[in-house]
Here is the input.
Amino acid sequence: MQAFQYRGVGCAMVMVPFTQTIKLGFLSIGNYSVDVVTSPDVRTEPLVIVESRTAGPDDYLYAPVSYVNVERRGAGTEVFIGGEFPLMLVGCMVMKDVEVHPSPGGVVVVQPIAEIVDGAACHPGVYSYKFGVRKTLPTALEGEVLAHVRVMNGESVNRFFNLITP
Here is the structure.
């Protein structure tokens, strides 16, 4: 850690969120713990690996999601995803469906399924490159939740949320 101090200027001590991606490869089914060797005081939730619902990878075209938010809404939980569709030479990309699957261990898997269409839906004034989609789960999730959103570039957008019971 490094800090700079300037005369006559106040300095706010703030926490800045950050993300560090760690590639784990393929893991067998089971419960794992994550230890941060350089920070033994850091506490993490167990990592639960469950059996896949299909024999192979899915075959969806995913939307280019850049943002995810999860929050409690009444008796349910709301997931919001947003991003910007790419400029297409022919046709345009639209959201076909958003599947949301709560999984064991506090993980919410989000599959933003897109498709490429052509026609009136793609004309300026009707079509917007920016998109935002809300999906409400009928059950209220509680505690720490990891939103895992599959995205177009073959990677994912992942973000932790602490859903406090009202």
Q: What stands out?
A: The radius of gyration is 20 Å. The beta strands are 30-32, 47-49, 65-73, 76-84, 92-103, 107-117, 130-137, 143-150, 156-163.
